[in-house]
Design a protein that fits this description.
The complex is a heterodimer. Chain A is an alpha/beta fold. Helices cover 36% and strands 17% of the residues of chain A. In chain A, a hairpin with an 8-residue loop joins strand 5 and strand 6. In chain A, helix 10 packs across helix 13. By secondary structure, chain B is mainly α. Chain B has a two-stranded antiparallel ribbon. In chain B, a hairpin with a 7-residue loop joins strand 2 and strand 3. The radius of gyration of chain B is 26 Å and the shape is elongated. Classes of the chains: A alpha/beta, B mainly alpha.
Chain lengths: 498, 182
């Protein structure tokens, strides 16, 4: 039995998970059309390699990764690329981004893809395969998995599979673990092989007994050192740094990555798609998504990436009174700018909201400095101070108070008796600081370039002057020589005369 | 009495020597104030301040020859920062100098005749091209100074506003409508 530790703070909101776990995962039928954004992952967007009007097969590569942190994008079914244009995507800004529209032909015809035995590949080959299969973290941050598997200077000792799923309403990982436990374990074996990790811990919150049993059964047949650990249900216990603290008592230092202390963490769904990608050659084309909230049949679906969310929600039947969709959980999720935005690799949950489920926020009152927020902050920050600095736009101070360690979990806003939308202030301050840093950087570059230009102009001037001087000197010397030679000719002539 | 005087004199000589030595040894090259002011300026090198670049303007401010409200690209915030740095009161912008939205130059490549005049005008070498060859802007390096627009004999350069995209989108300052508060 592993000794478990505690992280600071945390809250226990109502879980609201049982509604969507009554039935198994249902595969959705083909939607009328698919909209596939080229930026579904952290890092650089993928570069489109298809033309409008082109016929593509299921699993065909349509966007190639560009840059070190990037991932591939594939056609989720066979059909015709009807458009390549900017469309509204699931982003808090409500802005548009480049997407491919795919009209399915209904055949769902696969491109040739081959099964491979992972042990016959080198870790580097496997990493490349995951990159080209578009496998990214499916816990919400969608960080390309191959980058996390790159062995740097740091030796990863412990591989953690994150099945905590701490946020209310979301049950996609729970259902995946219940139904596809062995595939998750196989995927974890691959990840463990690439990292050459010594132990694998599968962490699941104790409010998912069925998933724990399923995973325990699945690991019993594995040759690797697996351990399924039941962790207490405290939000945000599924946060990477919090989870590492609970399992190992190690704290990831500020501004550092878990790998730097010898731990790497993957979501269970990521392990599952890594297995499909390596063993079957299937790129990441679909994901499990919870549809819950104000719907008649809340449950989990396996839906194709690019499915318009309103078509997905229709399978669960929206109830009257719905006033919008939330992607992600109620704590960290975002309100979708439109009901028809496409499902992306990050979409773990769609909550159909209604006034009854999520009453409008009460007006914010002044901060009374009760410090309840700092009691629940899982990162041990002083949220009331950060709020103060962000509100006054004192960004430098906010940074010295470790604003960037904030994981935006929303625990502080949840307990705030003054209903202050604290996280919104932190997000505002963070993006403002990011932009300023960028501006400073480009100003420095501009200064450097300007100074170099001045120097170059000066140098060119000097070189010209030097050349001119040299020319003049040469001309003078030539003249002298000429004078001398005429002199000598004259002299000779005189001699002749004599 | 004499001893005390000697001791004090000795201490004064030793300390004076140390001070004198360090004044030579740790002498700061250039005017640090100019560099500090220059660091605040946005480095567009646009010359809207009436000086041929950000550094000359910084030098003029440091010498007390220029006001701190002559830099439109720096915006109100730039004035605020300069005022803080120099310990003076912020001065609002004049009527003629107003900050504009950020933009980037764009060359209509089909009209460009390859005269290289814009290349010579660009203060940060953000235009590539050669004589009788089409020119183009390196957008990432363009400071939006507009100095290339005027010299173009065929008017093929235009300033394009930088629009909000997902990649440069910022979270807004939280504001609430009044009816919600009521």
């Amino acid at each position: 039995m592993r000794t478990l530790y505690k992280f600071h703070g945390g809250i226990r909101p109502q879980s609201n998970k049982s509604q969507s776990t009554q039935n198994g995962i249902v595969r959705t039928t083909l939607p009328s059309h698919l909209v596939i954004p080229f930026q579904q992952h952290a890092g650089e967007a993928a570069k489109p390699i298809v033309q409008v009007g082109e016929y593509v097969l299921k699993g065909q590569l349509i966007g190639i990764p560009e840059g070190f942190i990037s991932s591939a994008i594939h056609a989720p079914t066979s059909g015709i690329i009807a458009a390549l244009e900017a469309q509204i995507i699931a982003h808090p800004s409500g802005l548009t981004d480049l997407c491919a529209t795919l009209l399915p032909d209904g055949k769902d015809e696969w491109i040739t893809h081959e099964k491979t035995e992972y042990l016959s590949n080198t870790p580097e080959q496997l990493r490349q395969k995951l990159r080209m299969a578009g496998v990214v973290g499916q816990g919400g941050a969608t960080f390309p998995s191959d980058v996390k598997l790159k062995l740097g200077m740091h030796k990863v000792k412990t591989l953690i599979l994150n099945g905590a799923e701490c946020e209310p309403y979301i049950t996609c990982d729970d259902m995946l673990m219940r139904e596809r436990a062995s595939e998750i374990v196989r995927g974890a074996e691959i990840l463990c092989f690439i990292l050459a990790a010594e132990e694998v811990i599968i962490a699941i919150e104790d409010n998912k007994p069925e998933a724990i049993t399923a995973m325990r059964t699945a690991v019993s047949g594995s040759s690797k050192v697996f351990e399924v650990v039941e962790i207490p249900t405290i939000y945000p216990g599924g946060g990477v740094k919090q989870l590492i603290k609970v399992l190992t008592d190690l704290e990831v230092p500020s501004g550092k990555l878990p790998a730097e202390i010898g731990v790497q963490c993957f979501n269970v769904a990521t392990a599952h798609s890594a297995w499909r990608a390596i063993a079957y050659g299937e790129p990441l084309l679909s994901r499990i998504v919870t549809v819950t909230g104000n719907v008649r049949r809340p449950q989990n679906f396996e839906a194709l990436i690019g499915t318009p969310i309103n078509e997905l929600v229709a399978h669960a039947e929206e109830l009257p009174g719905a006033n919008g969709y939330i992607m992600g959980g109620p704590m960290m999720g975002m309100r979708l700018p439109s009901k028809s935005v496409p499902l992306v690799k990050a979409s773990n949950c769609i909550i159909v909201s209604s006034e009854k489920l999520f009453p409008p926020a009460l007006p914010a009152l002044p901060c009374i400095r009760c410090t309840r927020c700092s009691e629940v902050c899982p990162v041990n920050l002083q949220p009331q101070d950060l709020y103060w600095f962000a509100k006054a736009k004192e960004f430098g101070k906010a940074q010295t108070f470790s604003l960037f360690d904030c994981i935006e979990c929303g625990a502080c806003s949840y307990v705030c008796p003054s209903h202050i939308p604290l996280v919104q202030y932190y997000r505002f301050a963070k993006s403002e600081i990011r932009v300023r840093t960028q501006e400073k950087h480009s100003a420095d570059r501009a200064r450097e370039r300007h100074e170099f230009r001045e120097y170059r102009i000066e140098r060119e001037k000097q070189e010209k002057a030097e050349k001119l001087a040299a020319k003049e000197k040469a001309a003078l010397a030539a003249k002298e020589l000429e004078a001398k030679s005429t002199e000598s000719v004259q002299h000779e002539a005189e001699l002749h005369k004599e | 009495m004499l001893n005390a005087l000697l001791v004090m004199a000795g201490v004064a000589i030793v300390l004076g020597a140390i001070l004198g030595y360090s004044a030579i040894k740790f002498r700061v090259e250039g005017n640090p104030l100019v560099d500090k002011i220059d660091a605040v300026l946005p480095q567009t090198q646009c010359g809207q301040c009436g000086f041929p670049g950000c550094k000359p303007y910084a030098t003029a401010i440091a010498a007390g020859e220029a006001e701190i409200n002559k830099c439109p690209p720096g915006g109100e915030e730039g004035i605020q920062k300069l005022a803080e740095l120099l310990g003076v009161d912020p001065v609002p912008f004049g009527v003629e100098t107003r900050p504009r939205d950020k933009s980037v130059a764009y060359i209509d490549e089909s009209t460009c005749i390859g005269c290289t005049l814009c290349i010579q005008a660009c203060p940060v070498d953000a235009i590539v091209g050669a004589a009788k060859q089409m020119h183009t802007i390196i957008a990432a390096e363009c400071t939006g100074c507009e100095l290339c627009v005027a010299p173009c004999p065929v008017d093929c350069i235009e300033m394009q506003l930088i629009t909000e995209k997902i990649s440069n989108w910022k979270w807004r300052y939280p504001v609430y409508s009044m009816d919600m508060v009521q």
